[in-house]
Amino acid sequence: MSKNNYRLEELEKLVSLAKRRGIIFPSSEIYGGLSSVWDYGPIGVEIKRNVKNLWWKSFVSERDDIFGIDASILMHPDVWKASGHLESFSDPLVECSLTGKRYREDHIFILEIETKKENKIIAIEASDKNEAEKLVKEKIISIIPLIESESKENPSPDGGTLSDPRNFNLMFKTFIGPVEDSSSTVYLRPETAQAMFVNFLNVLNSSRKKIPFGIAQQGKSFRNEITPGNFTFRTREFEQMEMEFFCSPDDDEKWHDYWIQFSLDWFKKYGIREENLMIRKHESEELPHYSKASSDIDYLFPWSWGELETISNRTDYDLKAHSELSGKDLSYFDQENNKRFTPYVIEPAMGADRSVLAFLCDAYCEEETEKETRTLLKLHPEIAPIKIAVLPLSRNEKLSEYSRNIFDRLNSLYTTQYDDTQSIGRRYRRQDEVGTPLCVTIDFESVEEDDSVTIRNRDTMEQIRVSSDKLLEAINDQLKSF
Ligand code: GAP
Q1: CB within 8 A of 91, min separation 6: which ones?
Q2: What is the rounded (10 degree) CA torsion for 350, 356, 358, 364?
């Protein structure tokens, strides 16, 4: 099996593991699900919470130059006028003449392929060229994105032809109050960023902080994506973790480089393998309307490289646009240099759900043991949903009492699970599959003879015996070793 096919197969296995072990479920599943909308289960919610908390710790709590906020999803519609989203937050949409199915024009690739009988022209839907290449088995003679193709015949992936593109705005509309008309139209925010711009003065005045400083928040964003997909990679409802760093226009490039490196280091610190991460600088033609320069942190997903985070130099675009439309002065007076200016903004914008998916993909692994294939998630202990599982060897009264005591001691310090169902082998497998770094096993010797327990390491499967009074020390040492 080729490496690429292997990786795609790996994604299918991860999706099925996620369902089986309570990590991620299709939304409203009993009604047949809702396309590309997902729910986090009891294990997944802990993983996502850990990822969000670690981001908050690194980007907000551990620093004295970043402030957090938690703003509303609904905002004044003028916010989206000033930000440019009403006018230009759209994707080019094309429609198949045969099926009526809609595609993003920039996600269609025209391929000439060599079949046994003759060369054929086909259309493939993919997020980039690499992914398109992986989707065909035949020899590829040429591959051209539809938007660059000069041919008048636009084949559709469904066999018909594709219409000319029309712009489709990605913002979800709703109405505020009981009357549904244009004066009551509001939008579900398509990014969390704008709340940081419209609260710039509030935070500046209440914190009395000098520039440079940042404002950060985490929360839901909504985009009516034309072609969502690849599990939780592209969905219509998702969470973002964004920070707007306000600095002097003279320092913008220095801070841009700083936040790119900071973000890359953050992913590495929590266990993503270096070879699966890269920094990709945007070409000038792909820069969003507000950006002077942008770089992505990309991850090698099972289907191809995909964006986890964009770090953009938004210049003074947003503050100036909001100043103009609202009539409020959003400039800053630099007392030291006796200078007034509109701050520039560097924006690290990360997806919470995409990051969770990358942590899961990177942690997923299968190992051959003597008896079977062992599936495990090698998650960093800080991301692991359960840190320790307490496993009495059997359901015996004495064992249970002793084990419950151990559980109570550990659970006040670490997220711990008590499990006394099924065979010990099965319980180890279950914990391996959700990435629990350590299992503490209690047997009859523990209770009757040596007051000691066994600690099993998820990755090495090595077991050590420690006396119960040294348990905490041993656990701390073991957790540090991952
Ligand atoms: N404020 C800038 C901004 O929103 P973006 O590159 O459009 O920039 C930032 O989004 C991050 O949000 C992306 O890198 C990605 O991780 C996440 N994201 C964007 N659209 C998404 C979608 N449809 N589904 C899941 N995550 C998404």
Answers
A1: 104, 105, 106, 167, 168, 170, 225, 226
A2: 170
How large a percentage of the chain has pLDDT more than 90? 84
Distance of CA 416 to the CA centre of its chain: 25
CA distance 71 to 120: 52
12 is written with which tokens?
């299918």
Helix runs in 270-383, H state only? 317-326, 352-363
C-alpha of residue 240 to centroid of ligand 1, in Å? 7
**pLDDT, average across residues 313-330:** 97
Q: Are 326 and 197 in contact (CB under 8 A)?
A: no
Distance of CA 190 to the CA centre of its chain: 16
Cis check: omega of the bond before 212, within 30 degrees of 0: yes
3-89+170-361 CATH? 3.30.930.10
34: left (phi over 0), alpha (psi -120 to 50) or beta: beta
Gap between the Cα atoms of 205 and 481, Å rounded: 45
Which ligand 1 atom is at minimum distance from the Cα of 190? Answer: 4
Distance from Cα 360 to the centre of ligand 1, integer Å: 18
pTM score: 0.91
The single-letter code of the amino acid at 152 is K
Q: Is the CB of 83 under 6 A from ligand 1?
A: no
Strand order in the sheet with 305-315: 66-68, 213-222, 237-247, 344-351, 305-315, 293-300, 277-281
| Topology given in CATH for the domain delimited by 386-480 | Rossmann fold (3.40.50)
Residue spans of the domains in the chain: they are 3-89+170-361, 91-168, 386-480
* pLDDT tens figures, 47-64: 999 999 999 999 999 999
Q: Which residue has the tokens 């590495």?
A: 268
Expressed in percent and rounded to 5, the helix, strand and coil fractions of the chain are 35, 30, 35
Q: What is the CA(147)–ligand 1 centre distance, in A?
A: 22
Sign of CA dihedral 191, 197, 198, 202: positive
Cα–Cα distance, 15 to 7 (Å, whole number): 13
Predicted local distance difference test score (pLDDT) of residue 3? 42
1 falls in which pLDDT band (50, 70, 90)?
Answer: very low
